[in-house]
Structure formats: structure tokens, C-alpha cells
Amino acid sequence: MGSLFVLIRSFPSSLPWFRCFSTSHQLFKTASSNRWLNRQNNDYFTRRAKVENYKSRAAFKLLQIDERFKIFRSKSSSPRNTLNVLDLGAAPGAWNQVALDRSPHGSKILGVDILPYQPPDGASTLQGNILSKGTHQQIKNFFTLSELEKKDEIFNDVEIITSSKSTPEPMESDASILEKEIEVSQLMGKELSNKDNGPAADPASSGSDLTASYPVDVVLSDMMANTTGLALKDHVMSMDLCDAALITAVDLLKKNGSLVMKFFSGEDDVVLEKRLNAVFREVKRFKPKACRLESKECYFVCLGKRAYDVDKVELFSMR
């Protein structure tokens, strides 16, 4: 209080008193900002991010998670088995960069953030609120279009030969045409419905319908609210964002898909972990070395989504 009194006395008497307190607040704020800048400049991962051209030090958290859990490993040796990766809270794009580097060639990376940002070359971005159903539909539309583009590429590899014979080829039977249609349909990931010989296939069981409804292989969430310095409040806000990420995974993630989400540890993370275990076969807590030791920040790494359809009412009734 004495130092504040000296500060006030040092200003001219004509200066309004509220300007004095505003100035003292700015001095305290500047000191705090300087401490933050000094910590950033002296941080190993911040310096390394600049050297390796990552947009932020957060890239090393995801790199360390992937080194441990191999979340970007394709489930098949097929060169066409690429991944659809959804990155929530993606700005400024460091996790986009890691996903591009670690995913199989040709994978689709979509970053979603309420703030605009410039994604790295090869990734796409959607500005929107992940709590919105409209945003979920836009995500589905993006990956559905990507799947259609992949299927077009399949036919680019097919060589079409036109016969030079003068005599016409014999007409193929309906059975042989049907066999070829089935082969093409299977190649495109669709089930052929023969309306003449039987009932139509159940849409719920169609592989193509499931792909359209659940198009994502990996969901990443590095979402966080602006921290307040109050541990309980920061924890509660973190749990809300984790619930949003879990809803997104329930709605969009394929069976056997993976989810990585950041959370601030606290008493409610036990309930969150229980819900995650209901949706995924394997759930691990992991704190990468790139996280600051004093931080409450940690990650849930969830592998192997149990089923496509999950009852959200039942899930969020868990306590």
C-alpha cells in the first residue's frame, strides 16, 4: 500500500484519481506480461518450434502422444487406406501440421475453430462453433465430398480399351452385367440393392451410409477456454469443452476410431473418464513432456471406438 501511495503522490495533483489507479494496474499488467514473455523466450519447446517451423510449441505435445500411441497409423497396408482427421480448436494450426506429417499420404485434415486461422498447405479449415449441429453437418459434407474424390481416383487407374474388331461383341447376359455391377459397387464401398430379386438393403447396415454418417477416423481436441488463474473455474470450463469433443466423437467418429482430448485435471475428470470408457475400448491419461510441469494440463488418449451408434442420453447420465 505504501508503494501505491508513493506512486499516487508522484503524479500531478490535477490528474484524476482514477487515472492513477488505471496507470498502476497497467504497470502490474506489464510486469506480468514481461514474465510470460521471458518464460516463452527461455522455453525449450518454444525455441524448437521456431527452428522446425511449427506454428506453436503445442506441436510437440501431439508428436509425443503419437510416438507413444501411434494414433495416425493406418489400419491397412493399402496405399488407399488414408485417414480423415478432425482437429478441434485448431488455431493457429500446429496440430494440423503434425497430422499432415504423420498421417498416410492423401489423408484429409480438417481444422475447426471459432477463430479464423490460416491452415498449412494440404489441410482445410472450417470456422464454426463445434456445439452447433450445423457445424457437424458441414464437417460431414466436407469428408463426404473427400470420399467421392477418392472414388473418382480409383477409376483414373482403370484403363479402358476399345476393341478394333469390325464384328460386334456378343451381348452380355443380365447375370454377367449384374456381377460386374456388384464388383464396381464393392470397389466403391457400396452394397448393391437388387429391387427385382429381393427387398432393398437396410440403410442402417450399408457401409457407404455408415461412412457418410461417421466419416472421421481420428478426432483431436486441443480446445481450451481463456484461463482465469482460478483452478476450479478453469477445470469446469475445460470439462465443458471435453464434453463437446466427446459429443463430436460420438456423432462423427467411425467404429474403431481414436480421440485425443486435452483437459485440466480436477474432481470432475473421473466422470469424464468413465464416459470415455463407455465409448472406447482403451482410455489412457497421458501428460507429454512438452506440457509444463506446473500446469494442470493433461490428455485423454482414447483408442478403439466400440460402436457407431452411442446413446448420448444414457452416456451423459453417468455420474
Q: Which CATH class of the largest domain? A: Alpha Beta
Strand order of the largest sheet: 3-2-1-4-5-7-6
CATH superfamily of the largest domain: Vaccinia Virus protein VP39
* Rg (C-alpha, Å): 27 Å
The global form is globular
For the secondary structure, the number of strands is: 7
Arithmetic mean of pLDDT:
78
Largest sheet: 7 strands, mixed
Q: Which CATH architecture of the largest domain is right?
A: 3-Layer(aba) Sandwich
How many alpha or pi helices? Answer: 11
Structural class: alpha/beta
Low-confidence parts: 4-11, 17-25, 160-178, 180-205
- Looking at the structure, the CATH topology of the largest domain is Rossmann fold
Quick rundown:
The chain is α/β, with parallel strands linked by helices. It has helices at residues 2-9, 17-42, 44-51, 58-69, 94-102, 133-156, 174-187, 207-213, 231-252, 269-279, 312-315; strands at residues 84-88, 108-113, 124-127, 216-221, 253-264, 280-286, 297-305.
Structure characterization notes:
The structure is a single chain. The protein has 319 residues and is of the alpha/beta class. The protein has 11 helices and 7 strands. The radius of gyration is 27 Å and the shape is globular. It comes from Pichia membranifaciens NRRL Y-2026.
How are the SSEs ordered, and which strands pair?
Layout: H1 2-9, H2 17-42, H3 44-51, H4 58-69, E1 84-88, H5 94-102, E2 108-113, E3 124-127, H6 133-156, H7 174-187, H8 207-213, E4 216-221, H9 231-252, E5 253-264, H10 269-279, E6 280-286, E7 297-305, H11 312-315
Parallel strand pairs: 1-2, 1-4, 2-3, 4-5
Antiparallel strand pairs: 5-7, 6-7
Helix pairs in contact: 4-5, 9-10
Organism: Pichia membranifaciens NRRL Y-2026
Family: Belongs to the class I-like SAM-binding methyltransferase superfamily. RNA methyltransferase RlmE family.
Keywords: Methyltransferase, rRNA processing, S-adenosyl-L-methionine, Transferase
